[in-house]
Amino acid sequence: MRIVVAGAGTIGSLLAGHLARVADVAVLTRRPEHARALNEHGLRVSGRSDFTARLRAATDPEELAGAELVIVACKGGDLEPLAEELAGRFAGATLMTVQNGLGAEDVIAARGSWPILSAVTFMSGTRHADDHVEYVLDTATWIGPYRGTTGADAEAVAELIRSAGLQAEAFDDLRPTQWSKLVFNATVNTVAALTGLPHDFHFAEGELGSLVHALVDEGKAVATAAGVTLREDPWEMNVHATRRGHAHYPSMLEDVTAHRPTEIELITGSLMREAGRHGVAVPLHTALYSLVKAKEACYS
Amino acid sequence: MRIVVAGAGTIGSLLAGHLARVADVAVLTRRPEHARALNEHGLRVSGRSDFTARLRAATDPEELAGAELVIVACKGGDLEPLAEELAGRFAGATLMTVQNGLGAEDVIAARGSWPILSAVTFMSGTRHADDHVEYVLDTATWIGPYRGTTGADAEAVAELIRSAGLQAEAFDDLRPTQWSKLVFNATVNTVAALTGLPHDFHFAEGELGSLVHALVDEGKAVATAAGVTLREDPWEMNVHATRRGHAHYPSMLEDVTAHRPTEIELITGSLMREAGRHGVAVPLHTALYSLVKAKEACYS
Predict the structure, then answer these.
(1) How far is B217 from chain A (nearest CA, A)?
(2) What is the pLDDT of residues A255-285, one digit of tens each?
């Protein structure tokens, strides 16, 4: 099995590193020094796993032709230019998106006729260097068919990922899970980014718990209007996650702390666009969206 | 004229320093070293004014007996213990409160039968040391009667403050101005504290401007329900303030940056309590209140 992982941030690195143990994995990077580091040293995975994977890396997709599966694992903000690079290439491959929010599949679908799988992931890690990623949360990646694929195709990739030592689950329809994660993320990431709090007990009780609950309720109303039955209740996901025993730092909090652009546009932005399309008011998500955007505006 | 300024933070220091040029001013401090610094070096005022005021200071109110006017200038969070110290003292004096939010007058009124004036101030400064305050914004202090006082009493104090080189204005009813400031503060302070932005153009345009407008609208609905006609439109105050040419850092932003307790309970808390009393929904102010409280919770 030949796999290309396009984009090797935290999630891409975790997937590439683990999959390299059971398949022929190549990584498409944006920066030449990133590809050079991976080619020279391999990719070290620490934390819940501990090994160094040998894999190929390149900045030119031509060098990585012949893949059967291309996992598009870049951050949402980098998706458009990456999709542009993939256009006209990797004929015969199935492409799988793993972005936050909604709509990544359509960005890819517009650039070629590949069969497409859709995925969302709850695993997390810390990227220590171009060639070193720490595997922190061993939660699952969920996979479903999107275009020209079936639940059986999703299950085949899920099985491959599980055989590599990660958690994965396939569904016939990903939307109920994708939307559960969207509502969860739009709520937890923005609250963490604005308060500075890791995802801890404050999110599940008292005044902040009430705000989190109200944000989840707004999100659930949008899902209902969009005809999506959520697979998991985002409030239950929130309560469950705060009881893991150690506090997780959501990526949007890490982004604002490091003065990096956040995924607010993809996450809360997706939810707001769906709300607008279906005539649902989301005043609290709109408020938090504006506050996070303003926070980004004062990085300079 | 003998004046005691009780509490010499930024506002207390600005009032005490200027008034010492036209009256006999003593300062009641909490810390002995603060009183000692003022007694030894006087109080330096820089910025828009530039002089050193000679004044007396003490931590024991007994040493400051005989005042005709006591200006209660502490931060709202220090009001209860200070009111306790004033109880049974300063017979014959008029007391004037200058706290943010609503209700400071009642805390004082409950401790004695003094005539009471109510004030809000828009001036601002930076406290560089116990004996040095910089006068930054030369905006006005507004004064009105509260209990056992008249508009003429308010005007007499306003005139005294103007003669000392500060801006002041008297009103027969302070509530329309106090509430204007309350709605303005509940909006601008929380948004600044959460975004990290100084009070600049972002507050008056685009997405953040829309949020600010929506927060002001919630506040205006509470004022209307409470039977208060605002003297100035808080949205206009906001737009005007963002055009001053230099960006002001609201005190709540300075507080969260320095990991100090904020005045959220006094400011947004006052507004939420009035909203509850009059059955008005304030979901956005409630959301921002919860976020700022959560921000305080992660200082440790």
Answers:
(1) 13
(2) 999 999 999 998 999 999 999 999 999 999 9
